């Protein structure tokens, strides 16, 4: 039983780190955007991390809720559209 709890804690820690990395990248992008600074680098960092998390979630490596996936994808689409203009 203790072994299952340890494995669950490790899995939760992995998910938390992945989501925190994506959130930090998004925050950095938004901060630069507010200051009207060059945002390309932060956008690329977010896109890279978000794509990796989505791929892991879709392959079953990372357990995310449908809402978490939807929100990441929504931000990803918005940022990609801004990069193209």
From TrEMBL:
Domain of life of the native organism: Bacteria
The name this protein goes by in its record: Uncharacterized protein
Organism, scientific name: Leptospira ellinghausenii
């Amino acid at each position: 039983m203790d072994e299952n709890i340890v494995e669950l804690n490790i899995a939760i820690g992995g998910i938390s780190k992945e989501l925190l990395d994506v959130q930090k990248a998004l925050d950095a992008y938004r901060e630069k955007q507010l200051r009207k600074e060059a945002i390309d680098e932060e956008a690329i960092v977010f896109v890279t991390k978000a794509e990796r998390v989505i791929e892991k979630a879709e392959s079953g490596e990372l357990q995310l809720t449908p809402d978490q996936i939807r929100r990441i994808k929504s931000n990803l689409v918005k940022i990609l559209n801004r990069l193209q203009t």
